[in-house]
């Protein structure tokens, strides 16, 4: 074999390896999804959505309180994280060239990489330690802190997709910068901002670690801000590490609901981004 | 006219300061996390000092806290996961950005990114009920002479280092590959064209692109490492949670994130709690440094390409393995 042939053979081999890498990564994906779908669907029943958890050892029951609890925690998180994230994103897109904006961008990226369990300790220190008991508020805080950097960065990114001529036009008509931002730019990027929120929701809806010692768990239905509250991921965890078969079954059902939730949000986010990009091209 | 323009500039300043305040909250949040973790771990920081990180005994009942086994477990599992996932992740990035037919690109990218969307707890569940039994039967099938090597010693439990590293590898792949793909996308196509013009094969042209973006690629790998270090639930469920320092792939061990997740609600006294928070503080510091470093590396590539005209690739790159820098 001469040198050229050898180089070509090596090239072909590496190309093959790269293709193999894709297949190799898809195997666990199908493996995980396959199990969750199969085990989840065979375990899912109406009781799962409507009933409360049964006491230890008894079969049956469901995760109605955990699902409502997750919705409630997301509501608390979104209530403060969405305004903070969106407005911070508006700042980055309006004054993006200042050094402070670079610092904020950098910090948001770093915050995005901080392990969720560490955020959980922070929320614990803020909201559990002073009052000495677990609460829905603490759990919501932890989840909200995780949402902020995601919303900030996507809001900025998608506001930047809106043509700057829109801003210039409204400024030329005598609008203040605030007016140009909130009445022209933000509405134009609204689907994109919704996307950012969806991505953030998809990310936090399945988070378990920061809830373990903030929201904790609750066997009953609760809407109190200051009481512990159940959530779907924590319930799945509790059931998964328990020794009971029926609880394992319900853990799979819970996993299916979580995956379905995350999947729908991810796909929605993707569709909206695609549309927005197409709208503002040219 | 004058008053109105003055009012407008006052309005604009108000807008800048108002929105700037919310942006400042993001910075304040990170500073706040550090301050709070530091404040609540003082007890342990003062009592143990550096000894905390070299001690091998973790005995909450006796009030003896040494965190070395957790550092060991975290590093071992993360590095092992990176060894498994990095070649695969880079292969995916190369395939999707350089080789894939246009029609396959979007669905394949979506599928690999879906790996990142699956919640950690679902990976954990899958790990406990599917992966761990597989690893266990693998251990049972390990021949006796192999078990004499420290790397493979230990009873066939299924839970342990190998299971944790495998789950971590799957979870980290999408992070590394999507950033590496972005870096490759930012490499100017003139780089590849020049390589082809010089008679390079496909792989050699890809190598030129990789060489151009190597700083960013390293950033992508480090970012994946940061994810692995901080991953909690899936690891907690499959690593066996035993604070021992062992070289064996099959031995149940423990990580920093896992010990916090498991023992935080059980920490009855203040010293125990503050020891766990100190582990959290160090975990925070490690991930901040890792993330800052990787972002910096990724930025340095993407920014360089935007501002400066592309630098010529070394013509010696394919001929001699020692071919100099870019």
Question: Please, could you describe this protein's structure?
Answer:
- The complex is a heterodimer of chains A (282) and B (326).
- Chain A is mostly helical and 282 residues long.
- Chain A has two domains: 3-43; 48-280, MetI-like (MetI-like fold).
- Helices cover 75% and strands 0% of the residues of chain A.
- Chain A is built from eleven helices and no strands.
- The longest helix of chain A has 41 residues, at 3-43.
- The termini of chain A are far apart.
- Chain B has a single domain (69-307), classed as MetI-like (MetI-like fold, Orthogonal Bundle), CATH 1.10.3720.10.
- Chain B is mostly helical.
- Helix content of chain B is 72%, strand content 1%.
- Chain B has 13 helices and two strands; from the N terminus they run ααββααααααααααα.
- In chain B, a hairpin with a 4-residue loop joins strand 1 and strand 2.
- In chain B, 49% of the residues are buried.
- Chain B has a two-stranded antiparallel sheet with strand order 1-2.
- Chains A and B meet through helix 1, helix 3, helix 4, helix 5 and helix 6 of A and helix 1, helix 3, helix 4, helix 5 and helix 7 of B.
Compact overview of the structure:
With 282 residues, chain A is mostly helical. Chain A has helices spanning 3-43, 46-50, 64-94, 99-113, 116-128, 136-159, 164-172, 177-188, 190-205, 232-240, 245-280.
Features:
heterodimer; A: MetI-like fold; 0% strand; globular; B: 326 residues; mainly alpha; MetI-like fold; two-stranded antiparallel ribbon; 13 helices; 1% strand; flat; disordered C terminus
Oligomer: heterodimer
Strand content of chain A: under 5%
Most extensive contact: A-B, 87 and 84 residues
> What number of structural domains do the residues of chain B give?
1
- Output the radius of gyration of chain B: 25 Å
In CATH terms, what is the architecture of the largest domain in chain A? Orthogonal Bundle
**Percent strand of chain B:** under 5%
């Amino acid at each position: 074999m001469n040198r050229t042939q050898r180089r070509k053979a090596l090239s072909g081999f590496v190309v093959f390896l790269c293709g193999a890498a894709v297949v190799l990564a898809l195997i666990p994906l199908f493996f995980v999804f396959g199990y969750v779908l199969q085990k989840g669907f065979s375990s899912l029943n109406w009781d799962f959505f409507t009933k409360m958890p049964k006491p230890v050892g008894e079969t049956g029951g469901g995760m109605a309180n955990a699902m409502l609890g997750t919705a409630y925690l997301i509501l608390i998180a979104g209530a403060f994280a969405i305004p903070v994230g969106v407005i911070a994103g508006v700042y980055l897109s309006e004054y993006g060239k200042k050094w402070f904006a670079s610092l904020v961008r950098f910090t948001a990226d770093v915050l995005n990489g901080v392990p969720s369990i560490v955020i959980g300790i922070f929320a614990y220190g803020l909201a559990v330690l002073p009052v000495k008991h677990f609460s829905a508020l603490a759990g919501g805080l932890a989840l909200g802190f995780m949402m902020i950097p995601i919303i900030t960065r996507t809001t900025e990114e998608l506001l930047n997709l809106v043509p700057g001529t829109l801003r210039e036009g409204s400024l030329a008509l005598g609008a203040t910068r605030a007016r140009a931002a909130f009445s022209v730019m933000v509405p134009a990027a609204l689907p994109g901002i919704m996307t950012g929120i969806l991505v953030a929701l998809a990310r936090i809806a399945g988070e378990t670690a920061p809830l373990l010692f903030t929201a904790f768990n609750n066997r009953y239905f609760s809407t109190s801000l200051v009481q512990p509250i159940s959530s779907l991921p924590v319930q799945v965890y509790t059931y998964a590490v328990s020794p009971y078969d029926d609880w394992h079954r319900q853990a799979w059902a819970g996993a299916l609901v979580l995956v379905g939730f995350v999947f729908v949000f991810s796909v929605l986010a993707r569709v909206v981004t695609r549309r927005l990009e197409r709208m503002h091209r040219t | 006219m004058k008053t109105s323009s003055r009012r407008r500039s006052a309005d604009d300043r108000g807008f800048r300061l108002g929105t700037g305040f919310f942006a400042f909250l993001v910075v304040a949040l990170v500073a706040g996390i550090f301050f709070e973790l530091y404040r609540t771990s003082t007890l342990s920081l003062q009592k143990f000092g550096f000894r905390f990180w070299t001690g091998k005994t973790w005995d909450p009942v006796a009030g003896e806290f040494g965190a070395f086994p957790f550092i060991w477990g975290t590093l071992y599992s993360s590095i092992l996961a990176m060894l498994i996932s990095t070649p695969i992740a880079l292969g995916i990035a190369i395939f999707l950005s350089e080789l894939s037919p246009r029609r396959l690109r979007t669905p394949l990218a979506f599928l690999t990114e879906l790996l990142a969307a699956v919640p950690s707890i679902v990976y954990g569940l899958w790990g406990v009920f599917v992966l761990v039994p597989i690893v266990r039967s693998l251990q049972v099938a390990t021949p006796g002479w192999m078990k004499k090597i420290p790397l493979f010693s230990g009873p066939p439990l299924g839970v342990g280092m190998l299971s944790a590293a495998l789950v971590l590898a799957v979870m980290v792949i999408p992070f590394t590959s999507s950033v590496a793909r972005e870096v490759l996308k930012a490499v100017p196509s003139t780089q590849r064209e020049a390589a082809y013009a010089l008679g390079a094969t496909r792989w050699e042209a890809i190598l030129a692109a990789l060489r151009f973006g190597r700083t960013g690629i390293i950033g992508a790998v480090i970012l994946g490492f940061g994810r692995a270090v901080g991953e909690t639930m899936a690891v907690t469920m499959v690593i066996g949670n035993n604070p021992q320092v062992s070289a064996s792939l099959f031995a149940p061990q423990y990580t920093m994130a896992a010990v916090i997740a498991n023992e935080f609600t059980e920490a009855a006294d203040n010293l125990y709690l503050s020891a766990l928070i100190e582990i959290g503080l160090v975990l925070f510091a490690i991930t901040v440094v890792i993330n800052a470093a990787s972002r910096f590396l990724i930025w340095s590539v993407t920014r360089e390409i935007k501002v400066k005209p592309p630098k010529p690739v070394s013509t010696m790159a394919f001929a001699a393995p020692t071919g100099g820098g870019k």
